[in-house]
Amino acid sequence: MPHPDTGTWRAWLDDEVLVPDADRHLSGCLDCTREISRLREDASHASTALALLDPPPAAATPPAAAPSRPTTTRRDRAYRPGRARQWVTSAAAAVIAVAVIGTPVGRAAAADFLSLFRSERVALLAIDEPSLLKTAEALGQLGKVHDVNEAEPVEVANIRQASARSGINVTVPDPATLPDGTEASPVIRVIDEQQLRFTFGEADTRAYLSQFDDADRELPAGYDGATLLVNVPAAVVQEYRGPDGMSGVLVGHAGTVTADVDGDIDLDTLRVFLLDLPGLPDSVTRQLATIDDWRTTLPIPVPIDRVGGEETTVDGAEAILIQEQGLGSGLLWQRDGVVTGVAGNMDEAALRAVVDSLRAP
Amino acid sequence: MLETEPPPSAVPGRYDAAFKGLAERLTSVARRVVGDAAEAEDVVQEAFLRLASDPVLDRPADEVAAWLNRVTLNLAFNRLRDTRRWHHRAEKGGRLHAQTASDDPLHAVLRSEQQEGVRAVLSQLPDKQRDCLLLRHSGYSYAEIAATLGVPPGSVGTTLARAERAFRALHEES
């Protein structure tokens, strides 16, 4: 296969063209892999910079404030800053918040689709906002969600209370590593554990498939009525306010996501079926399909249209570094059953100093 | 909603439909360029007023939308250029001072500087690259961008890739 040109790869990243055998080509072509990586970085940079031109959330005048986003209810659920996110001021911190404490759709997208497992590792899932919405909307049409009670963050007085309520051994940073002017005492919030249940329905799924002229697709045995049970763990977020009263540094801890199926179908079969569904963004399914040890790897959706993300390590643990030029950075990793995220308006070196200082109080 | 709508009687039916469908989206894009909600609404209103007397109004809806995109972007960037000239003169004359309307003036000033930096870089790009970049990152499809720029849809990926690369290089230099 000849090398597709740069413009074709750029359009491919946006799902605007099909490149036959793209995956096979990329697996053997270092030049094209590098080119795509550069294209992604360029696009991410432009998107982040242009987003600076939008009014800040407090000054936004919906609905006209978000030019690029569909004004659906689901979009609003996903991205309107809720109570849990009002205090999140930097985009990098917001990413950590999405990953650690989550928004309903963010959680649903991860839980419905990505999390049929016990999370022991983290991996980066580069996804832009339209793809995240497309994925969440598609999966939401396959059945019914029950008993979603959105846990609100509850402020607690100290780290001991946070640890007791969440069941997590919360660690704290050395105040000396925080940027100058940052308050040494954090605001501490706990989000309680939740369970999400999603029941797949044959009628719903066939109605979805009929949009793609594929209503007769064979469904796996035991699919109809199978219920996906996802435990979204408790989380603790410490907010160290900066001198301007904004969030200076955020430290988040969350437990292990677990999932199981109640019904006569196994997780692997369900996963293969879901990944093969029409209507899901290729860029998403392609990345998910390459996770071999999916039963233990938690894909963290990173909005590449807003921030840059890369895989790295923290003290030997696989980690994700999120950076946004001029606005800060975040690190997210998993160890001993706890996902930890740290973010702030600082560069990577300063962030790592905070991370390295985390200790039990 | 826009505060000042053009007279619906100017082009009954078609005009209203086009206006309702496109104005909000165009206002958001224009706001990214001019940086002010009221000014963005003025820009879009002017584009629609021009539309009312332009023969393109008899063309299919997608051509009308492409025309409006093109005219709105041109008007917005013209206005940005004029505003920057005015700021330059005002700064020389000592008349300009920092905006302090925000609860957090330092943050507002920093953000304002970042925004000016982005707009300055956008203004340095060739027009097609600039418009392609802005439209794509405001959620427009390749087909819509191609129609706006008057280029084949197959060339949008190339223009966009060049625009993003040039934008990043200039922005990192600035």
What would the keywords be for this entry?
heterodimer, A: 361 residues, alpha+beta, eight-stranded antiparallel beta sheet, 12 helices, globular, B: 174 residues, mainly alpha, 72% helix, disordered N terminus
Question: Overview of this structure, please?
Answer:
The complex is a heterodimer of chains A (361) and B (174). Chain A is of the alpha+beta class. Chain A is built from twelve helices and 14 strands. Chain A has helices spanning 6-13, 22-28, 30-51, 73-79, 91-100, 104-114, 129-140, 159-166, 202-210, 267-275, 282-289, 348-356; strands at residues 121-127, 143-146, 154-156, 187-191, 194-200, 227-232, 235-241, 247-254, 258-262, 297-303, 308-314, 317-324, 328-335, 338-344. In chain A, the strands form three sheets. In chain A, strands 3-4-7-8-14-13-12-11 form an eight-stranded antiparallel beta sheet, with helices on both faces. In chain A, strands 2-5-6-9 form a four-stranded antiparallel beta sheet. In chain A, strands 1-10 form a two-stranded parallel ribbon. In chain A, strand 11 and strand 12 form a beta hairpin. In chain A, helix 1 packs across helix 3 and helix 6 packs across helix 7. The radius of gyration of chain A is 20 Å and the shape is globular. Mean pLDDT of chain A is 72; it is low at 58-118. Chain B has 174 residues and is mainly α. Chain B is 72% helix and 0% strand. Chain B has seven helices and no strands. The longest helix of chain B has 32 residues, at 61-92. Chain B is globular, with a radius of gyration of 17 Å. The chains are: A alpha+beta (361), B mainly alpha (174). Chains A and B meet through helix 1 and helix 3 of A and helix 1, helix 4, helix 5 and helix 7 of B.
